[in-house]
Amino acid sequence: MYLVVIAWMYVVLMMSVAEATNTTGSVLGAIVTFFLYGLLPVALVVYLMLAPQRRKAIKAREAAEDAARRSTTASPDVDAGGHAAGAAQADGVAPVRKEP
Q: 3-62: per-residue pLDDT in tens?
């Protein structure tokens, strides 16, 4: 991919030089040619081609942050529900419920 980008930028540079050195051309035309035919399209193509890599990096960073958050908040003393354990009372009343 980088070879295509380098080759296209070389072609655009040569087009800009030809525009600037031509008798009917101008330096302003060469600059416009370089930006409109070279930098802007190449920047857009490279940005679009690197989108999957950026997405993977974002997901990996979020997974690492989530794992770090879970490891700092979880402790072995806490039950799965996150509620405090209640002590059983010896003379307590059993809960009333219907038989299934």
A: 999 999 999 999 999 999 998 989 999 999 999 999 999 999 999 999 999 999 999 999
User: DSSP per residue over 78-94, as a string?
Assistant: S-TT-PPPPPPPTTPPP
- In angstroms, rounded to a whole number, what is the distance separating the alpha carbons of residues 20 and 28? 8
Which residues 6+ apart lie within 8 Å of 30 measured at CB? 16, 17, 19, 20
| Residue 86, pLDDT score | 62
Name the nearest CA neighbour of 38 among 15, 67, 62. Answer: 15
Neighbours of 42 (CB within 10 A): 16
Are the C-beta atoms of residues 17 and 30 closer than 8 Å to each other? yes
Q: Which amino acid is at 84?
A: A
Q: Token pair 């942050």 is at which residue?
A: 65
- CA–CA separation, 16 vs 24, rounded Å? 13
